[in-house]
């Protein structure tokens, strides 16, 4: 096994590509709607809501499911205290397959959906596993793929179909030479009516005349939300950074003027209030100070200095932009712990109820972040002395600690700086890759190196690589990135509190693990996988690297969808799972 080094020039190219992508791609289409909570849903074509407890089935036409879904059934499971409905793609074993004792759960990587596990009938990890007798389920966590928000059958089906249609439109648009950023997929196309009107003609900004009371209310609302720590999104320190950013933007409008000192006095008072516990008295004081700030700007507007021409309009625009960024942060309000503590347990409980394994346990395979979730679950259960309810686990290109490796993901660390939370509230991974695809797949191939992050040379059919790039990737919240990047720091991945380090408790696990790495994986190199493997009990862990010195080689997605995975990787996994299924 050789250690891989990422060229300095390529690092610079990646930073440049990210900068261009974030500059050119506007707001994201989130596909989220405010709805009521519903206990549990499985979808099936039906005219009556009385059939909601039954899933889409193979007896129904595929047109009854969203066209992007190639599974036998599409199930939905609700989350406690959430409007999210998580999609579960189910693949039934054929009648002639070997009977198995445990269902198989597949978990995908960060910002990806189920498609990576089912690229085509000839290159389908999920189909292969079900063909070997395993009742196979792919979980799409919140924000991924066909997971949507809805309170009834009609809403869920409409939302899922809308997601499916947009995913197919992106692929079709790129094929026809359109840039994804030119397609009508902006926030306004998918936000609710109330949100659209919030940013429309009645909102504060260039579209309307100066309205002092409205501006005061809006500024007060923003400051109150910062005071409340954005519903738990930000720590105290992060909230201070973001409020300071807003004040800096306003201060720039007054720079060099006689009003600057007066603004700094108001700024100091507001900053002190934001540090205090929320109460009605503080609310009143924040509003009073917001009024004073607006009055300062208004006084500047009345001055004869050219510096203050359109001052009110510029302040309105600054506040409106700031509000939109806050809304994105709140809209994408989840992190790794949400997946670990809510999404995965809900899916496991649902699958157990559907399949009824005698010992109540599941087999599980996780790719990239999916494997990290499985490691974290083993560590957490080991620490708490709980049964993880997993019979055996396979991880593909996963680690809890990347500090010793040369992973290219380190280049994303600046995006996870809390000070950048407003600049980049979400990382639009799907839109970025779709925008870059024509430059990586067509002459002069200026971004061809991006393909190497996904698949090694000649390891994936071009059409499958295209489908993977255009349809498999989703959007990553900054909140999720903030937590995941702890895996690149001392002591490895930690929970949101920053006090529980998963690798410290992995040795307490009693579940057999097969850890697999790819020899040319630039995202999760073998040395990163080894860093976690060595923490597991030796009698319970098996470690294997795929790839030969002279080739073939395996990059990050080749372990799941590479052309040789069916011959080399899949049988290895089947052998391990079969051993522990018995």
Question: What is this entry, summarized?
Answer:
About 45% of the residues lie in helices and about 10% in strands. It is built from 20 helices and twelve strands. It has helices spanning about 10-25, 125-130, 155-175, 185-190, 195-200, 210-225, 230, 235-255, 260-275, 280-300, 310-330, 335-355, 370-385, 430-440, 450-455, 460-470, 480-485, 525-535, 560, 565-580; strands at about 40, 75-80, 85-90, 105, 135-140, 150, 360-365, 390-395, 425, 475, 515-520, 540-545.
Spans of at least 5 consecutive residues whose pLDDT stays below 50 are 1-63, 179-210
With helices defined by DSSP (H or I, 4 residues minimum), what is the helix count? 20
The fraction of residues assigned to DSSP E strands is 5-15%
- Counting DSSP E segments of at least 2 residues, the number of strands comes to 12
Structural class designation:
alpha/beta
Domain AB hydrolase-1: 338-544
GO biological process, one term: lipid catabolic process
Keywords: Lipid degradation, Lipid metabolism
Protein name: AB hydrolase-1 domain-containing protein
